[in-house]
TrEMBL record:
PROSITE patterns from the UniProt entry: FLAVODOXIN_LIKE
Species annotation: Thalassobacillus cyri
Molecular function terms from GO: FMN binding; oxidoreductase activity, acting on NAD(P)H
Protein name, UniProt field: NAD(P)H dehydrogenase (Quinone)
Residue ranges annotated for the Flavodoxin-like domain, each copy included: 22-68
Gene3D superfamilies linked to this entry: 3.40.50.360
Lineage: Bacteria, Bacillati, Bacillota, Bacilli, Bacillales
Length: 68
């Protein structure tokens, strides 16, 4: 519970996420962002949201060096 929740209480719309559909979109090269996306998915599911985790594709082309 955050400081503002303690001071002002939780708004009603923040308590129920059963009608929320959430997309967690991530990109990772090392796997670190994947783990963060999974944690976000877990938290949202526990709150009642419908969650889909999507990995963004690589957009850059590999850098070519002279002579290749």
């Amino acid at each position: 519970m955050g400081i503002f929740d303690k001071l002002f209480g939780k708004p009603k719309e923040m308590e129920d996420m059963s009608n929320v559909r959430l997309a967690v979109i991530f990109y990772t090269m090392s796997g670190t962002n994947y783990q963060m996306a999974k944690w976000a998915e877990e938290g949202a599911r526990e709150a009642g949201a419908e969650v889909k985790v999507l990995k963004a594709e690589e957009l850059c082309t590999p850098i070519r060096h002279r002579g290749e």
